[in-house]
Every structure is written in structure tokens, then in C-alpha cells.
Amino acid sequence: MSPAGRERGRVGRPSAAASAETRGRILAAARHAFAAAGYSGASNKQIAEAADVTASALYHWFDSKAALFRAALEESVEILLAAYMAAAKEQRSCVDRLCAALEANVMLNREHPGLAEFLAGSPMELRRSPELASSLGPTQDPVSELFRAWLEEGVSRGEIDRRLEIEGTVRLLTAISFGLSWFHGLVPEPEDHDEMLRLCQRLLRGQLL
What pTM does this model have? Predict the structure, then answer.
């Protein structure tokens, strides 16, 4: 086939960039819908309208609402994990890494509204809907694994007391990180939220109490 013929054959087919942009819009709309209405309350029709695609286009990407939920969850975790790792890359101590991660978490909530609410509510959605949980299969928690690795390295370096109960601390750090972002939409002014961030960082550094 001639080059011209090949070009004519491509007419009407979306580029890879356009396809990725469409998929991104769908997942962002899904995050918002699941965070606001829960898994059972959010509808594919509502998500398609918010993403500015047709219902048939939505099913082209995801064959069920459960598949859409899983994709939104996986992407959200990837976004959070990448931001934490990037923020901590230049930090040497465990506490500095954790403080940098908290700051990255807050910035993410501004760049991706609904991300924290969706991630924070996902475990409860899986408990409420056994069908959803079984369709998703076992889920990984790479964020907790990252926190655990930082803490264990801090202990091995002597930065942190060896008596630290690591598993409980990992859960506490996860609660703080999600809770801080969740509060972003509740406090009156951005400055109030920034103050909460600084207080959390002081708490991690042992300077608050």
C-alpha cells in the first residue's frame, strides 16, 4: 500500500495520545463519582457524561463497573506512590522522607481533586460489596510497603528507636496522609490546611508536644 493509502486508512482512528487522554478523563470522572456516591451509587452513565464520552465508548474501555473501579484504584495508587517516591528521592533520613511525602500528598489533592477521598473510601467499598471485592481479587498496598521500607531503613541506620512498633506506625502514617488530604476540602482557607501540614511535620520530627 502506498503512503497515501496508509494515511487514508488511519482517518477516523484516534491517536495513542488522544486515546490516553480519553482514558484519563474516564478514570478521573470515575474517581469523583465513586468518592461522592460510593460504588453502588455511582452509575456508568453518570461517569460517561462527566468524562464527555458515550456509554458505548465507556464500555469499549471497561466492560463493567467493577473493572472501571479497579482501573481507577490502580491508577490512583500509582499516582500517589510516584509522588511519594519523587518527593523523597533527595531526602536521606526516614523522617525527612515522611515529611516530604506528606507535603506531596497535599499537593496531589490540589492537582487531582477527589483522589484522597477515593483512596480513603476504597477499603470500605470493598467491605460493603463482597461481589466487588471478589471480582477485583487480592489488592496490593505499595504505599504501606514504601512506608515500611523507610521505617525499617531508619531503624537499621539508628535514626529510629529499634523498639518502634513498625506495623502500627505504618497504619498510623497511612491514616495521617489520607486524613490530611481529606481535610483539604473541610478547612475554610488553604492557609489553614498548610498549617495542619506543618504541624504534622513537626509531630513527625518530635517538635510538636
Answer: 0.81
* Better-predicted residue by pLDDT, 30 or 136: 30
Q: Are 100 and 88 in contact (CB under 8 A)?
A: yes
Nearest alpha-carbon partner for 116 in 72, 178, 29: 178
* pLDDT (tens digit per residue) in 122-156: 888 888 888 788 877 776 689 899 999 999 999 99
Instruction: Please give the Cα distance from 11 to 21 (Å, whole number).
Output: 18
Please answer whether residues 146 and 85 qualify as being in contact, where contact means their C-beta atoms are separated by less than 8 angstroms: yes
Q: d(Cα 36, Cα 30) in Å, to the nearest integer? A: 10
Joined together, the cell numbers standing for residue 75 give 491508577
Average pLDDT of every residue of the chain = 86
Tell me how many degrees the CA angle 170-173-176 measures, rounded to the nearest 5: 150
Give the span between the Cα atoms of 108 and 181, in whole angstroms.
8
| Residue matched to cell numbers 498510623 | 172
> What CATH number does the domain located at 73-204 have?
1.10.357.10
User: What residues have CB less than 8 Å from 19, skipping those under 6 apart?
Assistant: none
Q: 96: exposed, middle or buried (C-beta count within 10 Å: 0-12, 13-18, 19+)?
A: middle
Task: State residue 54 phi and psi, 5-degree precision.
Answer: -80, 160
